[in-house]
Amino acid sequence: MKSIVLVHSPAHRAKSDHYPLWLATIWSKMESARKARTLWRSAVDRVEASLQKSATSEDVADRARAALQALENLQWDGVTKGVKASCSISDLASWFTTDWLNTDHMDQLLELLAADLGGGNGSTVVVETTYFVLKLAQAYSDPEEYRTGVGFEWLRQLGETLAMGKRTRMGGIANISDNHWIALAIDTEAETIGYGDGFHNTIPPRLRSHIDHSEAD
Predict the structure, then answer these.
(1) pTM for this prediction
(2) Which residue intervals of the chain are DSSP H helices?
């Protein structure tokens, strides 16, 4: 059986203690679980702290207790299931803290929103992922590639469904300046572009031009 020598301290460097290779694999998994447990512990501490606040409403308290019960039944590590925007289960701990939410988190929210709205093939409403605005910017900068590129096929199909009236409303979330999330809503019947910014800023001119640009159609 193959083995490895593991040196843990200067006092053991002169020794030749051999261990089976599978031990290193176990230790690696244990370290991953330890990091995940630290994330979950932080999430639980935040939820429990909210329950201790006198200003916490009963509705918030009920949600906090439900969150704690869910955390008790959720494993520390693994991969999320049931969503296209899959990520590590330990990443879900961010939902219980004030940490910055990443693209996977936002796409998971959008998937849940689409399911709540019943956005299937027969629906006139479509909810796009955070990838939409990024791809739209690429199409705007290279119209010829947009018209012919395989990577833009889904975007062209979306444009066709909006132009033909098969889809009349589209919503999504976009990132601004790499540190701020905003909401977008396009209504082709009312010919309006909705822009939701928690900082109450107006839509950036460049983003507006990407959405309102008709040359690439």
Answers:
(1) 0.70
(2) 21-52, 58-72, 103-117, 131-141, 143-148, 153-163, 205-212
